[in-house]
Amino acid sequence: MNIAKEINEIKQEVIALRRDFHRHPELGFQETRTAKIVKDYLTALELDEVQTCSGTGVIGILKGGKPGKRVLIRADIDALPIQEDSGEPFSSENPGVAHACGHDGHTAMLLGAAKIWAAHREEIPGTLVFLFQPNEEDAGAQIMIDDGAMEITGKPDAIFGYHLWANFPLGKIGIHPGPTMASSYYFKVKIHGKGGHGGEPHGAINPIDAATYVLSAIKSFHTLEQDVFQPTVITCCMIHAGQKEIIVPDDLEMEGSIRCLHEGHEAVHARFREMVEQACKLCRCTCEIELKCGNSLLNNDETLTALALETAEALVGTENVITKNVAMMGGDDFAEFLQYGPGFYFFIGMGDPAKGTDAHHHNSKFKVNEEALPIGMEMQMALVMNYLNQ
Ligand SMILES: [Zn+2]
Ligand SMILES: [Zn+2]
Predict the structure, then answer these.
(1) All structural domains of the chain with their residue ranges
(2) Which ligand approaches the C-alpha of residue 82 most closely?
(3) Which listed residue, 75, 170, 191, 261, has the most CB atoms within 10 A of its CB?
């Protein structure tokens, strides 16, 4: 199988698929149209199995003609609640919803790869599992797992994922070993004080006062306590309290996230709870703390990373492989699948200021650079084949 030649032959089909998904974006767990197209497409390829999971998740299994390992490849399929302003002729027809992260491209790329592999199934030494995941933007992976996705996929020997990346120039591939995307947990803190008269604060207990101590404790934690070589970010993004300038409120709510680009987030979470509780106690308040997992730490397997580096260098040349400043405090719930086997996730550069494809992800002007699609497909397919053939 000549991967580059095969991709070139179906390039226009992949672009057409991606434009169709782009025109009809759907929010997390509402991707019914997208899932139907994916399912019908995989069914037409006569895979060994095509099943749905969690409503809009789709899993296809292709058994190769030769014995070998089992590889899972994941693509995310959901869009975002954003009004598109990209100016593309195939812009979203769904008001307030847009593919502003590139998941339309991910879905089309994996469908194209599945088509090529299905046509060459006799040559494949192993089994390929294609997993199309809903709701990446809000922790859809764990829900799919809870709904039995891994019973359908079987235990994978390796798990691969990727993201089109506007921050890297077109033609580049970003690769990083170990912790690559931070774990992210969302916190919600409710602080309870005692309401009263603004002119007699001593007769009340002001939860706003406690919140300032909480924020100050977080700052000290960042600067004085946490090892700077264990990147950790605690960001408060919402505070709600009070309704009138002369009334001390009873309660306050603060929300934000805790991100760790290292193992051992449990210790950070425990310290966070302690700081909040102590700050509230100091101000005579009580509190309730909720922490919800957004995504786990995405930790790239070292051996698979080495294979990916070799693959990428052969494909785009050493000078086009980015290995510095790849890791980030943002997350991807691809990480949840890594509980089931070693995995590797890479970034496909697509930034080109002349074409406007360097607009940030989740921005209304975000655009996918379609020239990156065949590059990403080739990298993904070559990596999987190198893995199976080693
Ligand atoms: Zn996103
Ligand atoms: Zn994304």
Answers:
(1) 3-179+298-389, 183-295
(2) 1
(3) 191
CA dihedral 212, 214, 218, 219 (to 10 degrees): 20
d(CA 164, CA 106): 7
Give the helix/strand (H/E) hosting 363: none
Could you tell me the distance, in angstroms and rounded to a whole number, from the CA of residue 9 to the centre of ligand 2?
27
Of 385, 315, 312, 389, residue with least CA distance to 346: 312
Q: In what order do the strands lie in the sheet with 232-241?
A: 232-241, 251-260, 183-192, 286-295
200: how many CB neighbours lie within 10 A of its CB? 9
Tell me which H or E stretch contains 309.
helix 302-316
CA of 208 to the centre of ligand 2 (A): 36
Query: What CATH class has 3-179+298-389?
Result: alpha beta
Question: What is the distance in A from the centroid of ligand 1 to the CA of 279?
Answer: 34
> Shortest CA distance to 31 belongs to which of 135, 185, 137?
135
CATH number, span 183-295: 3.30.70.360
Residue 81, CA atoms < 13 Å, CB-side half-sphere: 6
Q: What is the pLDDT of residues 117-150, one digit of tens each?
A: 999 999 999 999 999 999 999 999 999 999 999 9
Each residue's pLDDT tens digit, 41-53: 999 999 999 999 9
Please give the distance, rounded to the nearest whole angstrom, from the Cα atom of residue 333 to the centre of ligand 2.
10
125-133/247-248 β-pairing = unpaired
- Of all ligands present, the nearest one to the C-alpha of 80 is 1
Number of CB atoms found within 10 A of residue 314's CB: 11
Residue 76 Cα to ligand 2 middle (Å) = 8
DSSP string for 217-268: HHHHIIIIIS-TTS-EEEEEEEEEE-SSTTEE-SEEEEEEEEEESSS-HHHH
What's the gap in Å between 108 CA and the centre of ligand 1? Answer: 16
Which pLDDT score is estimated for 385?
A: 98
CA of 29 to the centre of ligand 1 (A): 15
Cα of 209 from ligand 1 centre, angstroms: 35
Q: How far is the CA of 251 from the centre of ligand 1 (A)?
A: 33
Give the pLDDT band (50/70/90) at residue 4.
very high
